[in-house]
Amino acid sequence: MSTTVTEEQKGGRQPAYESPVAMWIGVLAGLSVVIGGLSAVFWAMVVDLPTYKIVADGSAVITERGLTQIVASDVWFVITGALVGAGLGLVTWKWFQPLGWPTALLAVGAGLLAGLVCWQVGLLLGPGSFAERLTSAQPGDLVPIPLELRSFSALAVWGFGAITPVLLASSLGPDDEDGPSRRRRHPEEPEAEESGTIDDRGVLTAPDEPTS
User: Based on C-alpha coordinates, what's the Rg of the chain?
Assistant: First the structure.
């Protein structure tokens, strides 16, 4: 009977947390890279880059509206990072919950990795080097600014967005100390039952103790 059970357990699929942890960390890293690349495509599509206009004297000018749109790339990077980071945090919690506190570190790492990939791929998808395009531009040409991250603190949003679901799930989830294990650890001591007889003086005596 025991041999049959062992063979069935070997043949069945094991949960994620029972498989080698290093393998699943690699899967999480690969997932972060893929999602970061897809996020870069979305980032490049939604950002409307302002342009500089080359005037007759060779200088470049930009409108006031264009100046306000310069930070648009950072704004969309932050929005994308918050959403993607939250998704990666949920996946990390689902896969690595039994590990305990290292799950939070894995979530932050996954979010930051996806953010770095999004940033670098976004540079490749952008219009290219601004200095080279500005140098080769002719009067009347419009030269869009590069798709780049101007505030490096925006990258932290990816890590913060990833760790937020982990912290919420760990704080709002059931506490293991409140389960049956705690009751087994601290069993209630049965109350001692008092037995005996009470004599005329109100003294309690044991059953085997003679009364006077």
Answer: 33
Q: What is the per-residue burial (b if ≥16 Cβ within 10 Å, else e) of 119-158?
A: bebbbeebeeebeebeeebeeeeebbbbbebeeeebbbbb
pLDDT at 41: 94
CB contact at 8 A, 50 and 69: yes
pLDDT category at 119 given cuts 50, 70, 90 is very high
For residue range 51-107, list pLDDT tens digits in order. 888 877 767 788 878 788 888 888 999 999 999 999 999 999 998 888 888 889 999
Q: How far is CA 51 from CA 61, 66, 145, in A?
A: 9, 7, 6
- CA angle centred on 16, ends 114 and 164, rounded to 5°: 40
pLDDT of residue 173: 63
129-149 tens-digit pLDDT: 767 777 777 777 778 788 888
Termini Cα distance of the chain: 66
**Which tokens sit at 7?**
């063979």
Residue 58, phi-psi category: left (phi > 0), alpha (psi -120 to 50), beta (remainder): left
Residue 51's SS3 state is strand
HEC assignment per residue over 67-106: HHHHHHHHHHHHHHHHHHHHHHHHHHHHHHHHHCCHHHHH
Reading across the β-sheet that carries 142-144, which strands appear in turn?
Answer: 60-61, 51-54, 142-144
